[in-house]
Write a structure and sequence with these properties.
The chain is mainly β. It has one helix spanning about 10-30, and strands at about 35-40, 45, 55-60, 65-75, 85-90, 105, 110-120, 125-135, 145-150, 160-165, 170-180, 190-195, 215-225, 235-240, 250-260, 270-275, 280-290, 310-315, 330-335, 345-355. The strands form three sheets. Strands 1, 2, 4, 8, 16, 18 and 19 form a seven-stranded antiparallel beta sheet that branches. Strands 3-7-5-11-14-9-6 form a seven-stranded antiparallel beta sheet, with no helix packed on it. Keywords: Signal.
Length: about 375
């Protein structure tokens, strides 16, 4: 006759522990993970002459790009007014842009391109450094790039807003912005940010605010100073998961900061936002120079034509750019510049997009 060990005996406790381990180990083996690494090859010098552009790229050898940015060296004299970001976008190969028919334009992009442009002035001090945020996750194994574009801005002191929206059943993990051509010296992207394709956010015209969850779209705003160009284009890019994941395990949180300035001519400003430990990994970020209140009203450009972006990049809490190989940075920084004229009422805006694959906000 066999005897079952009693619950309170050592043998009984051992059997209970063994049973719990049998249940727990498979669960742990299927834990959802997400980690990011910053890749940056360093600066590419230029543009060397007025009304030209320069491109550079960062590549993810062991993951997919979830976002990225750029940082520019501009010098310290009046020539600094001439250098501006022209684009920060995902790429299939580090050399090719997604610029054709809007919609889903690529899958599993692993490269990030950064573009710098010059106005009427150039300097040997100008350079552009790209930053790729490389995502490794056992939940988000594939991504897709959605592109949207619009003609403009084409007349002086105007802007053009365009929004790319993720397909239903996917999650937004990053985005980018681009304007062309570089030969129009005052044309540049002045905003790149996460948003929502819904009425509350005016279908992308109002940016996602601090603490908002699960944005599904990315907006780009092109701005122009005194120049004109009938062929000017503004592009927006959203980097989205594919629809084969269980969204109940995924949540994103937006962190946003807005600071006043730069207001006086030939000056710069920075703003930094970051993900808290409980919000998951920083997977991308955005930046803008604006007329303020971008999370409560439709985006409005700064009053003059000169304000522009000089950077949008992963960083530490003090705004220092993250170095090549940095694992799981927590902060994103926007670097803005007034250009050669005063710009009263300008604001610098920055967004950090935080991804949590352990807990979801959705029922």
């Amino acid at each position: 006759m066999s005897m079952k060990p009693r619950r309170g005996t050592a043998a009984g406790k051992a059997l209970i522990l063994a049973a719990l381990l049998t249940i727990a180990v498979p669960e742990a083996a299927h834990a959802k993970t997400a980690d990011v690494t910053v890749v940056s090859p360093g600066p590419t010098m230029g543009p060397p002459t007025p009304f030209t552009g320069v491109s550079s790229h960062a590549d993810c050898p062991d993951g997919l790009v979830s976002g990225g940015g750029a940082d520019q060296a501009i010098g310290s004299d009046e020539m600094s007014n001439g250098n501006h970001v022209m684009g920060m976008v995902p790429s299939a190969d580090g050399a090719t842009e997604y610029v054709d028919t809007p919609g889903v334009v690529g899958t599993d992009a692993a490269h990030w391109m950064a573009f710098g442009g010059s106005g009427s002035r150039s300097s040997d001090a100008f350079s552009t450094t790209p930053y790729a945020i490389c995502l490794s996750s056992n939940l988000i194994r594939h991504t897709q790039v959605v592109m949207n574009k619009a003609q403009g801005p084409s007349t002086g002191l105007s802007s053009k807003l365009v929004t790319a929206t993720c397909p239903t059943g996917t999650v937004l993990i990053g985005g980018g912005a681009r304007t062309t051509p570089a030969s129009v010296g005052s044309l540049k992207p002045i905003a790149s940010f996460p948003t929502f394709n819904d009425a509350d956010h005016h279908f992308g015209a109002i940016a996602a605010g601090d603490g908002e969850h699960d944005p599904d779209a990315w907006t780009a705003v092109g701005g122009i100073g005194g120049g004109r160009g009938a062929d000017n284009m503004t592009y927006a890019y959203a980097i989205c998961s594919t629809d084969d994941i269980d969204l109940k395990h995924v949540s994103t949180t937006v962190r946003f900061t807005e600071v006043s300035g730069p207001n006086t001519a030939s000056t710069g400003q920075t703003a930094t936002a970051g993900c808290t430990r409980g919000e998951g990994r920083l997977v991308s970020g955005g930046a803008a120079i604006s007329g303020g209140n971008v999370t409560t009203t439709d985006f409005g450009k700064a009053t003059s034509g000169g304000p522009h972006l000089n950077g949008s990049f992963p960083s530490d809490a003090a705004g220092t750019p993250a170095g090549d190989g940095t694992a799981n940075p927590s902060y994103w920084t926007a670097a803005t510049h007034s250009g050669g004229s005063p710009s009263q009422g300008s604001y610098s805006d920055v967004w950090a997009l935080c991804l949590d694959v352990r807990h979801g906000h959705k029922p």
